[in-house]
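Exercise: predict the structure of this protein bound to 3-methyl-2-oxobutanoic acid.
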Amino acid sequence: AGAGHGPPPGPGRRNVIMTEKIIIFDTTLRDGEQSPGFSLNMKEKIEFAQLLKRLNVDIIEAGFPISSPGDFESVKAIAQQVEGPQICGLARALEKDIDRCWEAVQHSKRPRIHTFIATSQVHMEKKLKKTQKEVRDLAVQAVKHARQYTENVEFSTEDASRTERDYICEVVEAAIDAGATTINIPDTVGYSNPWEFGDLIAYIFEKVSNVSQAVISVHCHNDLGLAVANSLAAIRNGARQVECTINGIGERAGNASLEEIVMNIKTRQDFFQFHTDVNTEHIYPASRMLTRFTGISVQPNKAIVGANAFAHEAGIHQDGILKERTTYEIMRPAAVGWTGSSMVLGKHSGRHAFVSRLSELGVTLEGPALENAFNAFKELADRKKTVFDEDLIALADEQTRSVEQARFVLQDLFIKIGPDMKPSATVRIQANGESLEGSGTGDGALDAAFSIIKQLTGMQDAVLADYNVGAVTVGTDAQGSARVVLKKDNREAVGRGTDTDVIRASVKAFLNAVNRLCTAAEREKVVTPSV
Ligand code: KIV
Ligand code: ZN
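Solution:
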C-alpha cells in the first residue's frame, strides 16, 4: 500500500479514502496474561473477552490450553461464551499441544489454532537442539495436524527477526503448502527496528512463491520501545494482521499496544491508507478494565490511555485548545471512550447515573454486587467531598470481590504500634460459618497480620511475591488500595483490597489472594518444557 501525505488535521477537514483492512489479533489474554503479575482469574478473563468483543477485534487469542488446566478451562469457556470474534488458542508444534488446543477452541463458532516453532539459529541449536530440516519438518507436521481439525490455522516462526532470511522463507513456504492460512512473523525479543523489520516483510513477499495464499501477520515485542513502530512498518510492507495487547502488556517490556496501533491507523489514515474494524470508543474502558483486574496501572504519560494523554497543562496550550481544538489535539478524546470528567457524582446522584457512569468506565455490576456498590457509594459520598472515577472503580471492585465465593472473610482487625514495643496484630476471620482468631507480633503491623492469616488459613508456605499500596485518588481522605501477589507451589494469585484505611486495605488484599489461591480455577503455572 502506498503512503499518502494528506493535509494535517485542521478544522473542517473531510477526506474519503479507499482503504484496506488490517486484521486486529488481540493477545492480551495469552501473551499479556503470561507475564508475571498479570494473572486474571477465569471470571475476569471471560468479562474481558466480552469487552474485546464489543471492541470488535477480529481474533481473541484466549490462552495456551496445554500450559495449565486453568488456561484450558478459560479458553474453553471463552470459546463457548464469546460469539463474534474468532477464538484462538496457542500450541507448540507438537501433536499433544494441538489436540489440547482444539479440545478448548472447538466450542467456538469460529475457532483458530495457532501453532509455532522457533527458527533462529540460537533457538534451534541451544533450546530445541534440532537442525533446520528437523524444525521445518516439525512445522509442516504441526500445520498438517492442525488442518485435520480446522481450516483456520496460524503458524509462527518464533524469533523470526533473528532468523536467517532465506530459512524463514523456506519454512513459511512449507507451512503455507501444508495448509497454514495465516503466517505470523514475530519479533520475539524486540530486537528489530522499523527499517529492518519492514524490509524483512517485503523480502518474504518477494521470495515466498505461495505468499498470496496466506495472510501475513506480525507480532512485535517492545524491548527497545519499537513494537508499535515495527508493526506499522510491517503493514506498509504487506502485513495485514497485527498481534497486539491492551495497554501493551506482555512478556518482559510487553507487546505492541492495541490502542496505539489502532489509533495510528485511524488518526493517520491519510498516510497509511488502512482501516481496522475496531470500535475505538471501547478502548479506554478496556484499558481501565485491565488495570482493574491486574491491579497494575499504566504510566500517566502512556499514549492514548494514560491519565495525561488528553490533559493540556501549559497555559499556551490551553489557550490554543480553547480557540481551536485542533491546535493541540490530533484525536478527539471521545473517540477512544475518554469522557474526561473526573469529578462525577455526588451524594444526590441516583442509581441510574451511578450505573451509567460505571458502564462508561468499563464496569458492569449486577444483583447484590450492584446493590452493595451503590450503598457503599452513598456512604462514601457522605464522607468524602468529591467522588472521583477512580473511587467508583475501586468501590465496584471491592463489591465484586466481596461476592466472590470467598472461603475466608475478614471480620475484625486490631493493630498496636508504638515506641519501644513490637508491633502486634489480632485478626478475626470467618471461615465456613466459623470464627477464627489469632494474635501475634512481627517486624511491622502488616507482617504480624499477614503471618496470622497464613496460620489461620493453613497457608504457611505461601510466599509474598509482591506487595504495593497506593492512594486511589488525591487528598488525605482518599481511599487506600493494595495489591498482593502470593505464590504457593506452582500457583500464583493476585489479591486486591480497598479501604479508607491502608492497613485494612492491605489485609483485605492479602486475604483476597489467599482466597484466590484456594480456588481451583486459579491459574496453575505449570512449567512445560519448550519444543
Ligand atoms: O513472541 C513470540 O514469538 C510469541 C509467539 C508464540 C507468537 O509470543
Ligand atoms: Zn510474544
